[in-house]
Amino acid sequence: MTTPNDPVHTSGEPNIPEDPFLGPSLDRLSTINVPADFLPNVMYRVYEKNARQRLNWSLVALGVVLLLLATVGFVAWDVVLFQTERGHASFSQAMEARIKPYVDNLSEVFAAVGGMLSASWQLLSGLLDTQPSLVWGGLICLCMLFGLAWWQRGFLMRRSS
Amino acid sequence: MDASSLSDEEIVARIKAGKVELFEAIVGRYQRKLINYIYRMINNLEAAMELCQEVFIKVYSSLDKYNPEYKFTTWVHRIASNATIDWMRKKKLETYSIDDGGDKDGLSLGDQLSTDDLDPLTNLEMRQLQSRIEEAIDELPFIYKQLIILRHINELSYDEIAEAVDLPLGTVKNRIFRGREILKAKLSGEMDMVKGGHRDNT
Fold this sequence. Notes:
heterodimer, A: 5 helices, B: mainly alpha
């Protein structure tokens, strides 16, 4: 096997000896030390890629179906216990009685959120009618907020690099 | 399992059979050479680290396509060489002429130099020569720089270099020879100084 200091054979030309200083100097050039986290970073990506390649989507679908069945089964069992406990005549009656409080509660939550949105909009509309310049003020504040967020993102990225 | 006694080709065969953890041995063997090669080509340490990671991911992804008839070393270097050229083209850096651009990261030469029983003055002159050599290599046209680095830093044989960069062996030898001649022409003053000092010491 040839070494870096072996003479170079060019076609039709005699052997040309290497410069005794340039050759060893080239061989002794400085090299970068590899950071300790380089190898773990590479292997993390390799293992992630390997895991994705081995992912079986039919198994994932089967898992989803099984979880859904387990959920439905649990709810049904809960309703049956509720029916026994309260003495309801039928399963559907017990289910309605069991679920109704949660549905009512959810409706109350939606109504409250809707009410808050409506009140906020009325307040804002009233303010804008009396103070039209508030629109521009609001827009300027929004732009400043975006600018600040963008600067912060760049600052954090520069710090992490 | 101790992979140090296995050849690259044997490790690759076991990785293909499912021992993914053995890829760590491949990374350990080639990370230094590839990072140094890529860094010297693109002159950007952070980008070289990222690009080298991408190269290893490409190597892992392409293991199924690796043909054991060819040396694994040259195959890996070919992937690194192509990735480096692609990166340079994306950054619109010249890949076939002199490259004056790129930022300089401070490299410490002190730890890497061997004194070889030289007196302090000659040692200092050698260090200055090393620094000048680094600059001269960086100023070389791409087609010479690439081969000089593969030869003297990555320590590939002429045949391996020819395979890695997909050039005829004669072209590789010619370009390495011309690259050295350009370096000698650039460094003639400094080298004469060091030679003179070395002769005085003998």
